[in-house]
Specification:
single chain, about 190 residues, alpha/beta, Rossmann fold, 6 strands, about 35% helix, globular, nucleotidyltransferase
């Protein structure tokens, strides 16, 4: 089985998350895509974060595709950092081929994540294009550090079977929606 792992706060989930999911499912040939709804993000303020149960319920209402599974196992693992969660997941599911999915907007700050290089050496990574991030990904530290591991987008379907580090940048339709903008619009009312 090939599973995409799409982590985030989903605060709130929106059609842009669905678009990234659809692109990943189709382009990578995934069997499933797990939305990893995080209890919190060490790089972001918790002030505006809705309760985890609310974000999970909202995500489940939005993600109607049966291939998309909303999860919160990060909380059950008791880990706050993606690298630790992913290492544990790989250990308990050794027969599953996982691909880490991230928006290009997150690639710019990926080098600030704890053990980001370990993530890149443990999981193939698919970076999905986002508005305003198409060209900036080239200058990201991750793209520079793992330049030789970049896989052409035309070979993206094989990414899950490649030995990490391996990553690709996937172009396609882009949504300008963002959880930050949605929250800001809601507080402006």
């Amino acid at each position: 089985m090939t599973v995409g792992l799409f982590g985030g706060s989903f605060n709130p989930p929106h059609a842009g998350h669905l678009l990234v999911s659809e692109i990943a499912l189709r382009t990578l040939g995934l069997d499933r895509l797990w939305w990893m709804v995080t209890p919190g993000n060490p790089l972001k303020s918790r002030r505006e974060l809705k309760p985890l149960a609310d974000r999970i319920a909202e995500s489940e209402r939005l993600a109607r595709d049966p291939r998309i599974v909303v999860t919160a196992f990060e909380k059950s693992f008791g880990e706050a950092y993606t690298a630790r969660v992913l290492a544990r997941l790989k250990a308990i599911r050794p027969g599953v081929r996982f691909v880490w999915i991230m928006g290009a907007d997150n690639l710019k700050s990926f080098h600030h994540w704890q053990d980001w290089q370990r993530i890149a050496r443990t999981y193939p990574i698919a970076v999905i294009d986002r508005p305003g991030s198409t060209l900036s990904y080239l200058s990201s530290k991750m793209a520079q550090r793992f330049d030789e591991a970049r896989v052409d987008e035309s070979d993206a379907r094989a990414l899950a079977r490649m030995r990490p580090p391996a990553w690709t940048f996937i172009h396609g339709p882009r949504s300008s929606l963002s959880s930050t903008a949605i929250r800001a619009a809601g507080s402006a009312r």
